[in-house]
Amino acid sequence: MKTGVAFLSSTLHLNLHSSFSQSRNLFFSPIFRYCPSVLRTQFPNTSHKPIHTVSSTMASSYYPEKARVPPALQLPTPPVTKFKIALCQLSVTTDKERNIVHARKAIKEAVEKGAQLVLLPEIWNSPYSNDSFPVYAEDIEAGGDASPSTAMLSEVASRLQVTIVGGSIPERCGDRLYNACCVFGADGKLRAKHRKIHLFDIDIPGQITFKESKTLTAGENPTIVDTDVGRIGIGICYDIRFQELAMLYAARGAHLLCYPGAFNMTTGPLHWELLQRARAMDSQLYVATCSPARDAGAGYVAWGHSTLVGPFGEVLATTEHDEAIVIAEIDYSLIKLRRTNLPLEKQRRGDLYQLVDVQRLNSESTK
Question: What pTM does this model have?
Fold first, then answer.
């Protein structure tokens, strides 16, 4: 092999009478590693034409930088390299005031255990049902007494100097309801609000039927936020099924993806961990999820299993279905290491496909 080009020896022929060792050596040669099409295009007619490997010159013609439109942002230097995250898997009752007090206690306990970032579950202040969403909904924009759940999160974030990804609660805005996640900085200020983009409408006869769209409105904006513990992309539960959103967050320079979620007893065992590991692997980022604890007597029964996944798709910490506070360490240096081990960004085929970030594209075109 010379300068990235492999030649087949004129004495090399593959036929039905080749020995096993010859076939094995041919299959695992550089020719096959770099040219999977060789098997079907070269050997049937025992052609002796040169077979080109993916040299650096050829790779440049793939235009990996064009696989993201606009081009992917460089991963920013995070404010911290290592920190502890807490996943607070909470029990949820019909008593809203109790749920708020309970969440406050869990956040305090998490900080006492060293957490600098706390993640709460999806719909932690209300039962998860279409009947409950209008009753428990809060006016987050008005704040104060109109939104006691977010007022608590703001106050405790400031008092304990901790960043909080506040799970989600039903939000009322005018005549519309949303499933919304608020992110508070360690100063207690609201840094971002994510409204669930993909509504959970499912119908598996005999197992589960639920239509969030009966009461909720879908959000319109992906949400990425800079915090004291790095740049975080936010999704809520069903959002995790759409890899485009995670890929978009990765292209915007996220370090961590947070998905408060309440998967159910049908899809939870099959898909919950699988999806978390897939999103982490796709984007080569950390993925953190937080579920409500399981209540077998509730109308909607959550799967639980709040989890932290690393940038290689490895489960770093998890729990079962009962109440728990999972404390785990995030080390952002592993993102760079994994991207060096497996350089996906340099291998994307911008000549064949593109991920278009419509918001960024429109924003840049108006400058």
Answer: 0.84
